[in-house]
Amino acid sequence: MKLTVLKEYLNESIQHVSKAISSKTTIPILTGIKIDVDSTGMTLTASDTDISIQSFIPMEKNEIQVIDLKQSGSVVLPSKFFVEIIRKLPAQHVEIEVKDHFQTTIRSGSSEIQLVGLDPEEYPIMPGIEENKSVQIPSDLLKTMIKQTSLAVSTNEATPILTGILWTIAGGKLKFTACDRHRLATRETNVDTDPDFTLNNISISGKTLNELSKILPDQNALIEIVFAENQVLFKMSNILFYTRILDGTYPDTSKLIPQAYQTELVVDTQKLTEAIDRAYLLSREEKTNIVKLVMREDSTLEISSSSSELGKVTEELDTFSLTGELLRISFNSKYMLDALKVMDSEQIQIGFTGAMQPIIIRPEEGANLLQLILPYRTTG
Amino acid sequence: MKLTVLKEYLNESIQHVSKAISSKTTIPILTGIKIDVDSTGMTLTASDTDISIQSFIPMEKNEIQVIDLKQSGSVVLPSKFFVEIIRKLPAQHVEIEVKDHFQTTIRSGSSEIQLVGLDPEEYPIMPGIEENKSVQIPSDLLKTMIKQTSLAVSTNEATPILTGILWTIAGGKLKFTACDRHRLATRETNVDTDPDFTLNNISISGKTLNELSKILPDQNALIEIVFAENQVLFKMSNILFYTRILDGTYPDTSKLIPQAYQTELVVDTQKLTEAIDRAYLLSREEKTNIVKLVMREDSTLEISSSSSELGKVTEELDTFSLTGELLRISFNSKYMLDALKVMDSEQIQIGFTGAMQPIIIRPEEGANLLQLILPYRTTG
């Protein structure tokens, strides 16, 4: 293998695939990045067995010659050092040459780096995925859906299935669901598929989807998502992102969401967020994050928290509307802040069915997004 | 005590004094910020016994009324919560009212915060400092001198005196010296004092001086520095910064610096820094940071590092001049990078007196700054 490649392109590819490298892997070959070069271009691969990422560098892009190929071939290079040194090379061109026993030489300007390469034959082969089940979603929308639901994913490894976001497709709608024992988030969108196409019990690690978010392009490109037996493949321009489907059966959460509310209010999203944030600051000192909401006759809200040692925060807030029974309800202010921060409308609706029942937060318009928080059982 | 103050000014003052608050203090009153209000303005004080910072907010500034005073008084408020809540208050004006038993109420817009205040009588009194020994230095210059020497301060608490920067004044020159067992940094400047004014054995914690740097104004204001028995006071506009002088006698380091060189070279600062940085990346993986410098007949340098597991980095570098005996010398590349990063000239001079003797790095012009690094004793 011998080629010259533009540093800028190589660097970008390395940054993409390096998100799949785990420092904790027990499989030595996976501490490396696999490089394959042929007449079509250069492919970089990294994997931690849960995630695998492939990034492709074409020979030419926008009429610029990116790669000057001398000889095809493959090698695996130690990722940690490789990632850092390429970024710091002095010249715009990087020459990579692999000789016997995968001894690799990297040259750029007045720098010469010798690297002990590993045998690419030892590197695991990427899963074969048939493209019979797939959908396409705009990149921005996918990022937003991940952000709006991943906050509710469980961090408790004792219930692995709940560390994922559940993907379901039915009737032309794609829905994300995430929940732990204290909260639930759902987000729905229309997708352009056969109305008979359904998808059940596909749960993908929330952490993995957050990693995916980081490499999803900012431009509103369509991302093709292919569902196979155990794997899901996200296809971006020049990047393939493979991830495992979590084992187990995702619980039915539909019954948790009330069908009608006893009390409903509409408030300014930002003002509520700021008021709860101040009450949260004090509640955090008590380690409980308990904040109390009291609804008043004059349709205003009192939001408060207190600490026996430090004192008390009291906030007053106007509502746009307040209907139904006036409640006093306590909740985890951190969870409420997480939910409020992913609301994408200036006003929000909050629905209650009693002081001990779930709190439902939705954007004022549009029923695509729902956040549910269980209240605290407190007295007074 | 009762007053209204503009949030922006209160916030700025809090940010300044909060640098003196230690979360590890065993003296409960020192977890608070002391507030004193009288007809001249508001003074905030914070201290961790090593450092004390006072910040003053005047009644008026630039013809804006900053404080509206209703009643003078003092209180100590719990710093952690106070610092955060003030920043997040909803309105531009903040009302602070202290009632019986130091119960404090803070009001801003629709927020009301009750805080359990502490008795200001329990707060330690700031050290009295006579102004008979003082110098004035421009803020920028003081920051630069701290940056250029603090890198060489010892982090080993077993020799407390070496965790400080030594300040000496003689013949109208102020000199900073810092050293640990492996390196030494000195920086000198002219100061406008009586030529008979001398200062010896004043060592001030490097950590403290770095904290001071953060609040030194960016505008090139003159900072007055007052030296007392055990304390040094830095006087900025509206801020007083007190710090302890370290106990013990600072060792004589003058004999460490060679008077003449066997080999001298001049190189481009940035190119040398980048070449050593690449060699450092590999040497770091070996935990030794060893980088080797070889001088060649043609006046070029070879800089290299190697790792038995990963490979080798080799860098070639031109010099502007290379005189004297050609050496091979090994050193800690991390220390070299630290020294190179504070050089303020495009070219630097490096002086050697043998492969086992100190390496001296200086800016190409100006003898005010000197960095010394001891080489590694290696074979080959």
From TrEMBL, chains A, B:
Database matches in InterPro entries: DNA_clamp_sf, DNA_polIII_beta, DNA_polIII_beta_C, DNA_polIII_beta_cen, DNA_polIII_beta_N
UniProt domain DNA polymerase III beta sliding clamp central: residue ranges: 136-252
DNA polymerase III beta sliding clamp N-terminal domain sequence ranges: 1-127
Domain DNA polymerase III beta sliding clamp C-terminal: 255-377
Entry GO MF terms: DNA-directed DNA polymerase activity
Gene3D superfamilies attached to this UniProt entry: 3.70.10.10, DNA Polymerase III, subunit A, domain 2
Key words of the record: Cytoplasm, DNA replication, DNA-binding, DNA-directed DNA polymerase, Nucleotidyltransferase, Transferase
Subcellular location(s) per record: Cytoplasm
Complexes and interactors: Forms a ring-shaped head-to-tail homodimer around DNA.
Family: Belongs to the beta sliding clamp family.
Job description of the protein: Confers DNA tethering and processivity to DNA polymerases and other proteins. Acts as a clamp, forming a ring around DNA (a reaction catalyzed by the clamp-loading complex) which diffuses in an ATP-independent manner freely and bidirectionally along dsDNA. Initially characterized for its ability to contact the catalytic subunit of DNA polymerase III (Pol III), a complex, multichain enzyme responsible for most of the replicative synthesis in bacteria; Pol III exhibits 3'-5' exonuclease proofreading activity.
Protein name: Beta sliding clamp
Organism from which the protein derives: Paenibacillus gyeongsangnamensis
